[in-house]
Amino acid sequence: MSQSSGEPAHRAGGLPGKASLTDVAKVAGVSLGTASKALAGKPGVSDATRARVRQVADQLQYAPNPIAQTLALGRSDSIGLVTADLQGMFSSPIMVSAQRELSARGVTVLLANACGDARLERECVESLLRHNVGGLLIVDPSTNSRPPIQPDVPVPVVYAYAASSDPNDCSITSDNVTAGKIAVDHLLACGRRSIAIICGDVEYRASTERLKGSVSALADAGLEPVNIPRFGYWGARWGREETKRLIDSGVSFDGVICQSDIIAMGALDALKAAGRRVPEDVSVIGHDNWDFVTGNTDPALTSISNCFEDIGRLAAHRLAEAMDGVPHRGVDYVQCELVVRDSTVANSN
Description:
This protein is of the alpha/beta class and 349 residues long. It is built from twelve helices and eleven strands. The chain has a six-stranded parallel β-sheet with strand order 2-1-3-4-5-10, sandwiched between helices. A five-stranded mixed β-sheet has the order 6-7-8-9-11, sandwiched between helices. The termini are far apart.
């Protein structure tokens, strides 16, 4: 049956008001950005194109969603901060630093917790856009790359800690490869030459990148790990088990790199139980520089800081620049820093 001239040429799902902006752009024969500009009354679109897009939108009974509506509302002096982990030890310092930086610029931060749920994250984004935020900062608790938030978002977006998988997005994260090198370089500077590595969870990019950096730094020094680095999990029990296995193997070692401070706690326990002195016999270094761990081990734990505050500050800066019309693309890697304590250098205080 042929379609009557009085019916829309296309309607998503066959229901009134369900057409998307993508549908409008496709039928009008223009890009998504051009369709957005045309419907929002933005410059850069010819009168003829604007008229055609609006005609198609009317024909499809297109009803702007909250995201599209934000296009017409103009810039706001507030931003939305969406986190997957509101109370997390990784996310919290990033958020605090970003909020401090933005507040100093007169920008209000509206916080939303998506609890790691993709559907809830979409709802959080739409809710923030209904509040006319001028930008979005997306914070995740791991450095694993993540998919970008839904398309058609009309405001600048910056990703912190977990980089977007889209190279055209702006992301800020830790340089874990260099962090792995820093750990080795420090142990070498302490006179250690027989170094073992205890890895974290293989599902986390932090583990594989830290291992890559450590192995590379050892190779540069004409060395290799004295053990075969194995992946496990981010737990003290894993650190104890791997260190005991290392001791029981009979291999000689004078340094241990643990890919998290929690793992290092277990390593220190196992070394103490075996009568190995730290740092006199074995130097131990961790990653993450969590104060509640590093300040409560005996001896105090040397660690590599992820510099969360720097990540939050740079992410906020990049978002503010994008809101001012100067967007950035790609991934910025924040340098991690060595924090020396007694587990590698006796009486470092």
